[in-house]
Structure prediction request, 524 residues.
Amino acid sequence: GVTGILASPTEIRGAGRSATFGETSTVHCKNYPCVFVTKLMIAQKRATRRKVWTAWTAVVWAAAAAVLAALGLRVWAAAARRSGKKHGVVVGLFHPYCNAGGGGERVLWCGVRALQAADESVRCVVYTGDANVTGAEILARARERFGIELPRPQHVHFVFLRWRSLVEASRYPAFTLLGQSVGSVLLGAEALVRWPPHVYIDTMGYAFTLPLFRWLGGCGGAVAAYVHYPTISTDMLERVVARRPTYNNSAVIASSTTLSAAKLLYYRLFARLYGLAGASADAVAVNSSWTKGHIDAIWGARPGTVCVFPPCDTASFGELPLGPRSRTLVSVAQFRPEKNHALQLHALRALRDARPGHFDDVRLVVLGSSRNDDDAARVAALCALREQLGLAGHVDFRVNATFEELRACLATAMVGLHTMWNEHFGIGVVELMAAGVVPVAHDSGGPRADIVVPFEGAPTGYLAAEAGEYAARIADVLDLAPGEFRATQERARRSVRHRFSDHAFDQAFTAVFLPLIRRASSPR
Prediction:
């Protein structure tokens, strides 16, 4: 038989009864039998229409619910801020790893100290994911690691975020930048719900939280960022174009034309979104001229973007005596992949190969903080590389060293190593120079642009890029005559003493962010 829909009932012949649309009948046509299934077909069409209508209705209701939730959050946040303003302006600082003990954390706590000194009514709320410690322990670590005492520690509060894993790079093996950025928005939403601030400052580079606090948190006019490092930069795009493998551009992608083209498109789209997010900020401070160049290129150049060099403990380290030192090399950096500690070990091996008779008393001390299991695994890998390169008696790793241990090491070291490509600034390099340790830093980023620059017409340190270059520059420092070494120490210390001091940072930091606090505290 044939299953079909006839044009009209009159075409049906021989049916036991008349068949019309909406009915199902078995009929015999003039020349062949057929099954008339109009009722079933129409019912199916109606069911499909109902499903489509239901789906669109669900989308509309979901969108309406999201809008209402956003409006409700905005109204609630505004009410919460108004009720809390009588106790002082709340400055929210988004820093999920505030207990990490790195240069970014020194900026955070010096910034808190500067704001408290400038305005006694300020209450600082730090949004952190360090839920395994207490607020008192975090402040004690800041005091121990950086020597920072806050004027009013009782006015510093902590919101311990539960969803910090959403911004962990290990959670996103692919599309890491996008995954972490979406995760930061969700983490920021948790922070906003837990304690809505009057002024919001992102101090760790999560730019996608800026529009969240501006539009949903109701902090319009008081949203700001201190940018240590652009999430994406033109240098990253250039590396993909050049197909150079690195820690964030795997050899698999670099070796493929198709994958490189796809990643370049992804980076360009992400850079556009990153620029839109950054445009939500009312004030932006960047930590170096290198960072400012990239932020201006992606977020758009504007008068509100100001270079505020990070606070470096030039006063404390400047008290260390100058003069002859032991043949010790020192490195100060968190155990993160971009710090490229492996290059330091390869440079030391290259030095040994080039000067076998002058290596016995050379020693490298590597100091750095370990934030999590990934960092601990990197330390273990570096220990294995030390054994593989035959440097067991010449390299010492000191994880999570105290401030006093750091000072003691810098007081005796002769050469300081820095190996991060395009380091945004380089607090560790400044501290080396203030302590009288002659730096051999990577020939890129902040060290090249702002720090290891000639002073009074003479060098303050050295720059290198490859292991062989590092070995040659280290040898240059080790071979300096005592008088020449002392003169280099003095020039380096003078060049950084005032430019990168805590006092210079306090003045520049409050000049950028205090007007936002004044604006938030004024009646509306």
About this structure: The radius of gyration is 31 Å. The longest strand covers residues 123-128. The chain has a mean pLDDT of 86. The chain is about 50% helix and 15% strand.
